[in-house]
Structure prediction request, 119 residues.
Amino acid sequence: MPKLTVDGVGTFDVPEGKRMVLALEDEAKIDQLHACGGNARCTTCRVEFVAGEPDRMTAAEKQVLTARGLTGVRLSCQIPCDHDMSVRAISRLAGSGRPDAGSRPADEITPPPPQWVPK
Ligand code: FES
Prediction:
């Protein structure tokens, strides 16, 4: 089982391949934002990597990060937990002014099918 470390929170065993956004909610039990429901549109699921950043990303993640000029962050809704990773959870419901974290993302990466490109 891959381990997900969340800076300042702890280290958690995560089922192989689980979407990171869901692992942040279910295993780490933090109030991770995911306003678009995990569809690579809102970027509120963003995390900063401390270690283990994947060297590939979905084409959808690359497109939205590029369109918004975002660097140094990754979208947790587009990342399967397939190896040990360590992140900072920098986009949380508390203090966001939002009424809720967003609808729960699906179990599989959306929009389907994920197309993998180099990061
Ligand atoms: S981009 Fe909206 S939840 Fe990931």
About this structure: The radius of gyration is 13 Å. Residues 2 and 83 are 5 Å apart (CA to CA).
